[in-house]
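> call design_seq(struct)
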């Protein structure tokens, strides 16, 4: 007969780490989707311009980073995105106005 008091002896640290990773990936993706939608809406749909969309992209990234106490990897990814989008905002008009 099985013991009814042998309850809860399973090691679950790996499951906790996996679930935490899943939740963090979900948070990151939600932040990036919100940033992308704001950038595209301001830059293209409303016509406020690329730089206004880029500014809102940066502000949303900073607010989410501080509000959710994100890791240094999050900040590194955000800074890379800010720089790449900023360079794109400088380079693309050079090619489009030259034609």
């Amino acid at each position: 007969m099985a013991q009814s008091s042998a309850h809860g002896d399973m090691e679950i640290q790996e499951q906790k780490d996996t679930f935490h990773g899943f939740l963090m990936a979900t948070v990151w993706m939600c932040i990036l989707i919100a940033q992308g939608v704001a950038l595209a809406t301001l830059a293209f749909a409303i016509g406020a311009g690329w730089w206004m969309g880029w500014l809102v992209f940066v502000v949303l990234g900073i607010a989410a980073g501080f509000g959710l106490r994100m890791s240094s990897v999050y900040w590194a990814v955000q800074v890379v995105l800010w720089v790449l989008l900023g360079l794109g905002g400088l380079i693309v008009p050079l090619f489009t106005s030259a034609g």
